[in-house]
Amino acid sequence: MTPATEAALVERRRGERRRAPRPETRPLPERLSGLSVVVCAGGGGVGKTTVSAALAMAMATALDKRVLVLTVDPARRLATALGTRGLGSDPVVVPRSRLKRAGASPRGEVYAAMLDMKSTWDRMIERYAPDRDTAARILRNRFYQRISDAFVGSHEYAVMEALYELHEAGEYDCIVIDTPPSRNALDLLEAPDRLSEYVGARLLSWLTRPSRLGLRAMNFAATPFLHLADRLLGGEVLREVSEFGRELEKLYGGVQQRARSVYRLLRSPAVGFVVISTLEPGPFAEAEYFCSKLREFSMPLRALIVNRVFPDSLRNAGAEAAATALAENGKTATWLSRELGLRVRPDVAVAVGQTHMLFSALARRDARQLSRLERLGEIPVTRIPLFTDEVGELEGLVRIAGLL
């Protein structure tokens, strides 16, 4: 390589470094400030409900906005943490006085609500039915009343339905959705299409046939099933199932149109997905998969939040050397006894050293996993440290909000 060529290469690299985007250092609420919908997604047991509530609180604290957090958490931990009574489908405001006593100084307002599955489904029926009589017949149908929770992707679809309804109403500057923990990332992303396909599926056409042709006017192959179903369920139940299928077919056009509207919203610049995870192998793998599916579905990943991260101090070389000495050198117990002025048994010193070495190994694993996530999302990863105390009060939410 000639000197001139080498100089040109050096100058080009300098130009690339100057043009490279600076790493994002703004707090998470500021990075999400332009969004009207934040969809918090992740596996079960990662603290998603708590982090979602803390994120809503952080946004209301940093921004002069009305922020609503909507949860489907069946344990109702959100209501306990926010200190609200009777949290239900109607949003309630978290009193500013309570936020101040907990250590927050909000510029905006925080509202909270619990997703009511039955109300969401009933509103969907009323919205998509071609007329009031059809809606009334479906709502009265005992089969509908008993199986609405069993629809394919029903919880995920109900979240999307409520999200779209709240967004269109425009009462809040930002809506933070705490989604149900999905066994599969596609349950959430495909929920609108899956319900649309369910409503228009051949199964429903088959269910309507007994009513049209008579319960026993089926072909020979179907007869054994009908005899069994008649004995187990009774002819009245079969009739209601048939009527339910026939009425539900009338909703297909409305459900299909809403699915398209929901997907347009989820891909819009006003929406951002926040993936919440821990660094244990199971949740971490699910977070990786979910991030890849967001890219595949052209849906915007705005942030990654990793909960319960071990402190960097556990990877300190001096601390690891000290722990190794405790675990492997029997004389350290004698030295500790002399320094502390009390007797330290050798087995206790060994246990302390081994425990630190175990947590140190977990902290090194955390560091490797974090590096993988940062490369995966190409966005900053927000860390929430592992707390020794349970986060179940408003003060705990304020503490987490300050870390975002």
Strand and helix layout:
Elements: H1 3-19, H2 28-31, E1 37-41, H3 48-62, E2 66-71, H4 77-82, E3 92-93, H5 96-101, E4 109-114, H6 117-128, H7 132-140, H8 142-147, H9 154-169, E5 174-178, H10 185-189, H11 191-199, H12 202-213, H13 223-233, H14 235-248, H15 252-266, E6 271-277, H16 281-296, E7 301-309, H17 317-328, H18 332-340, H19 346-377, E8 381-385, H20 394-401
Parallel strand pairs: 1-5, 1-6, 2-4, 2-5, 6-7, 7-8
Antiparallel strand pairs: 3-4
How do you describe this structure in short?
The chain is of the alpha/beta class and about 400 residues long.
- Which word captures the global form? elongated
Order of helices and strands: HHEHEHEHEHHHHEHHHHHHEHEHHHEH
Q: CA-to-CA gap between the ends?
A: 49 Å
Average pLDDT score? 76
